[in-house]
Amino acid sequence: MSIELTKGERFNLSKETPNFSKIAIALGWQVSQTAQNCDIDASVFMLAADGRIPDEKYFVFYNNLTSPDGSVRHSGDSATGQIDGDDETVYVDLSKINSAIQEIVFVVTLHEGQEKNQSFSQVTNAFIRLYNRETLSELVRYNLNQIFSQETALEFGRLYKKNGEWRFQAVGQGYNAGLQSFVDKYYVENAVEKSSNAVEKSSNAGDQVDDAEVLRQFSDRVDKQLQEKAAGESVANPVKADNLEADKDVDDSVKDVDDSVSKNQEFAITAEEFLRRYNQGERDFTGINLAGVDLSGKTLEYPISFSQANLSNANLSNANLVKANLIGANLQGANLKSTNLQQADLIQANFSGANLTKANLNYARLIQANLSQAKLSETQLHSANLTTANLSSANLTQANLNNANLIGADLSQAKVTKVSLSYADLRGVKLNGVSLVAVNLDGANLKNVNLKAVSLIGSSLAQANLSGQNLAGLNLSGVSFQNANLSGVNLTSANLCGANLSYANLEKANLKDANWVGANMTSAKLAGAIMPDGTTHE
To answer: Where are the alpha helices (DSSP H) in 231-357?
Structure first.
């Protein structure tokens, strides 16, 4: 039976539930109809006894999903909060938490909330709950009942260790601040330069560092450290806590997590044996070896877990796996044609070479998933989260990626013929060797994307965000930029013949020597733009 907490109340996990260590902390929310562009992010700070994170990798968020000791794993970003129930989940194994870590803080922030004039007053039905990962039974819940009229950040709850026992406290403390303020509060050597030092001092929106930049710089530092480790070099920013275990122990724990499929897995079982266990009520198949099994057409009802399972070369075509947990699963070479994986957790799953033709992956979480060389033609990926996923050389012909989150994903050499990417978030996407001819990019966010070597002829970029892009010399003839944001774009010597630039924002854009014969410039905003003849538009 679940216990409902009020603000400030505590729950002793070690005392009340002494026989298991695997828990999940789920956060959920809904946004009002007037704030549908709210982007809400959950982050985790793992603190040492001094109240600071001992290393960047102990800041867990959608671009650093797993802590170095393997004890905390983030489910990834949910951008909208439109799905009822849990929006983001943090999986915790208390038995693996490094002995130096004494507190785990769960923070929720409104991305660019101050810039967008948003606050938690526009967020409803927010909650944080703890449940048993093995039985899925809820242990404790805290429903956010307070009214936050201006706050854009929230310290929702915390796990902390006292007298050797792990306890949970419902915090519910709001701040008129951004994520940078929490970085300042909990991190010793800031990854982002900033003068402000505490959450309480960061109420001025003009002083805020963009949340995406905070996370990007943290990601860069973590990636660099991992690369140095792989190359056998010393880490540039070693663990600082005196009582933190040696690097070798930390490395071994991470290795244990990564190798869990091969180390802890049972011998491959038959479809008959699996179905016998399933029909007897078993639902947790974590680490199971189902390599090559034929489960085509089967319906496996939620909740079911194949986390870290081996399903390589399995036949799952036309199977129903709605909301299934396949986090870290190996599906290399599997047949998933027309499989229903809607809302499934596929974080860090390996789909390399898999056949996902016409599969339903709407709202699925594919953060850091490996989809290289996968067949994704006519696949439904509406509102899927593919943050930093590997889609290199994948076949995405006629796939639906509308509203998908592809921040930092690798699409190098991918085939994207007739793909729909309307309103997709493509910030930082790698497009090496990709042609976007006749692709639907209406409303897409292409900020910080290198488009210099990408063909856009015949594409639709209506309402797309291309601010600050360098499109100098590109052939953009016939491209639709209607209502697009092209402010500050470099279009020198670009071919804009027949392009539709009606109602586009071209303020401060550089159009010198651009050819715009036949272009539709109706109601385009040109204040401060450098015109083709070199003059500046007033």
So the answer is: 247-258, 260-264, 271-279
Q: What does the pLDDT look like over 226-278, one tens digit per residue?
A: 444 444 433 333 333 333 332 333 333 333 333 333 333 345 788 998 999 89
Higher pLDDT, 286 or 46: 46
Of the chain, the percentage scoring pLDDT greater than 70 comes to 79
Q: Which two tokens stand for residue 448?
A: 């910080």
pLDDT at 461: 93
Residue 448: pLDDT over 90: no
Closest Cα to residue 202, out of 155, 151, 148, 156? 151
Q: Is 504 exposed, middle or buried (0-12, 13-18, 19+ CB in 10 A)?
A: buried
- Within 13 Å of residue 167, how many CA atoms lie on the same side as its CB? 14
pLDDT digits (tens, 9 = 90+) for 197-240: 333 333 343 344 455 555 555 545 544 544 444 444 333 333 33
Half-sphere exposure of 359 (CA within 13 A, CB side): 32
CB 194 within 8 A of CB 185: no
Q: For residues 74 and 57, what is the distance between their CA atoms, to the nearest angstrom? A: 12
Residue 80 in this model has a pLDDT that exceeds 70 = no
Where does residue 217 fall: left (phi above 0), alpha (psi -120 to 50 degrees), or beta otherwise? alpha
Identify the pLDDT of residue 239: 32
Q: Decide if 474 contacts 453 (C-beta within 8 A).
A: no
- Tell the residue number behind the tokens 């010393």, with chain if given: 234
Structure tokens, 275: 């179905």
- Give the separation between CA 62 and CA 64, rounded to whole angstroms: 6
The DSSP symbol for 60 reads: E
Q: Do the Cβ atoms of 503 and 483 come closer than 8 Å?
A: yes
3-class secondary structure, 52: coil
Enumerate the H helices of 118-187 as residue ranges.
179-186
- CA-CA distance, 296 to 99, in Å (whole number)? 45
* Residue 245 near residue 67 (C-beta atoms within 8 A): no
HEC readout, 385-413 = ECCCCECCCCECCCCECCCCECCCCECCC
Question: CB within 8 A of 179, min separation 6: which ones?
Answer: 41, 43, 107, 109, 153, 211, 214, 215
Burial 314-323 (b: 16+ CB within 10 A, else e): bbbbbbbbbb
Cβ–Cβ under 8 Å, residues 484 and 461: yes
Given a cut of 70, whether residue 481 has pLDDT beyond it is yes
Closest among 94, 88, 115 to 46, alpha carbons compared: 94
Query: Cα(90)–Cα(347) distance, rounded to whole angstroms?
Result: 12
Tokens, residue 280: 């007897």
- Out of 129-138, 179-188, 388-397, which region has the weakest mean confidence (pLDDT)? 179-188
